[in-house]
What we know:
This protein is mainly β. 10% of the residues lie in helices and 16% in strands. The chain contains six helices and 16 strands. The strands form eight sheets. The chain has a two-stranded antiparallel sheet. Strands 3-4 form a two-stranded antiparallel sheet. The chain has a two-stranded antiparallel ribbon with strand order 5-6. The radius of gyration is 20 Å and the shape is globular. It starts with 16 loop residues before the first helix and ends in a 14-residue tail after the last strand.
Amino acid sequence: MEEDSTSSAHSLSPEDDSMKMGFVDDYLCAFCDEGGNLICCDGECGRLFHPSKSEGAYSKCVTLDLSAGQQDLPKFLCKNCEHKQHQCFVCWELGSSDMSSGSAEVLQCNNKNCRRFYHLKCLPGYDPSKDLQDFECPMHECYSCNNIGEGTKKQTTKVKKIRTKSNEREMCLVLCRRCPIAYHQKCLPREISIVAKGEVPRTWETEGGRPFFYCKKHKMVKALRSPSRDHIKFPEVEDEHRVDNNVGNQEQPSIKELSFDLNMPPPEDTETP
Length: 273
């Protein structure tokens, strides 16, 4: 991730719908927001991760720390998708996403490129009487002017009237990497887009020119060039073969939250010059 782009991505046509909607998930590691050699989860979340310490050394990424054998498996599922426990993109707490159980606690956005999960209670503006099959999160319209992003079927009249080749790019959405806030590029607040002396930039681009940002809710960490990286939580199945010596029966596996603290300084051998 660099101001003038270092994340690995390829150039995309301006007509690409996911670019118009501001998605950069297919180009950045979910841990560190950098590019490189990434492994994709084949589950519902579809996120990318640095698979090993060597791949994440440049960005000081905690990585999945997978073995070579694990990386070569034909299908990879992150712990969230494996156990159907996903984080709400507002409060970042884990909740069941198992719709088949009838007791799902977090709902996935229905936008094909989004894949984020939410507690409905964390979206105060959402109408719970709506059909859940049509659920779309707040990231698909501009926070400033409430116009829908270019490339969707729900474009407002205002957007259609002003759409020209010259301003098409500035009507593309730019998304915050830590919360459901989005702006048209032309609507991005100056306090986010302008870098004051001594401050860490809040706006970045992938190598292919897709912009993203961190809004003012998130304190930037200079050494990381991002906010703190303790936002990812995986459910971890505890010892599945633990025996209760009092009754002689195996206990059922339980799930606990496993969070990654990426704010700790990396080992000396991972420091970049």
